[in-house]
Amino acid sequence: MVPAGVLGLLLCVQICRGSEELRLVDGSGRCAGRVEVKHEGEWGSVCAYDFDWDMRGAGVVCRQLGCGTAAHTSPYAPFGQGKGRIWMHPYFCLGTEDSLQNCPHFGWGEHFCSHERDVGVICTEALELQLVDGGGPCAGKVEVKLQGRWGTVADRDWNMNDAEVVCQQLGCGSAAHTTFSWRVSQDHSSLMLALINCSGIEKAIWNCNVKGWGPYNTPLDYTTYVECQGFSRLAGGDSACSGRLEVRQGRAWVSVCHGHVDLMAAQVVCRELGCGAALAVPGPGHFGPSVGPFWDGAFECNGTELLLSACTQRRSHMQTCTHSAAIICS
């Protein structure tokens, strides 16, 4: 028989360990805001100094909440100061902890910082990117959604490396052209990201070196324009609306294997290219010999996607591919 006191302790280890809850508040969504924990039925903030709080601790918060990875964090109350208790003062999180409560801290309610250093975190699930006013999803003014609203990005040294990250993130292939301009506006506009430096290989624009995280209200209207090459194209046909299907892999074009594209996927390609509706997916060799290398995968579309890159992609079970997929649009 297990003594009652020991049994109670074992139950507490299993149940009480996960009794503290975590949330992000005042960030217009569950995946961005001031970090708060619930202890003994009461919500309180988390404070830290900049020398012992970094993206590793923020990564623990985002992972614990199911909000992706950390995009930005600050210990200077970026989402305002809390009004109640300060429950935690964590330090030197490893980044591998299952929860923020497992990071080293001074004890519940024990802290050496004030609400001026309430920690704020922005997770990747709280961020969105789009190109607008360019005639399609792969060209236009760069906008980022932050704290629940859309705004511009600005960088006087904006270049093709920055544009490349935007295009690849949106599934629009490589960057073809980009410009940056600004003008004085009577209406204050929202600036979300400023002073952006990308190497060109980042998975998302917020993974670049971003020095200015908004939102900022500014009298300047910034226009960061990006035009992408697109994710798909048809080659070897009589026009841009028929031919062998090729897709963008990094900065190179590769062929798609015959049998890895059906009529639904063809509908998406034709729409993406502005070529009307798909008429046919002809057999192998219809537009001449295949050109390698090949895209290692197949596309499964429902026909409503705006871009082929938005379709579900599955791994290929074929060992080798000898014929390219072909599409004829209306």
Automatic annotation (TrEMBL):
GO terms for cellular component: plasma membrane. It comes from the Eukaryota. Keywords: Disulfide bond, Glycoprotein, Repeat, Secreted, Signal. GO terms for molecular function: serine-type endopeptidase activity. Residues 1-18 form the signal peptide. Residues 22-124, 129-229, 232-330 form the SRCR domain. This is SRCR domain-containing protein. It comes from Callipepla squamata (Scaled quail).
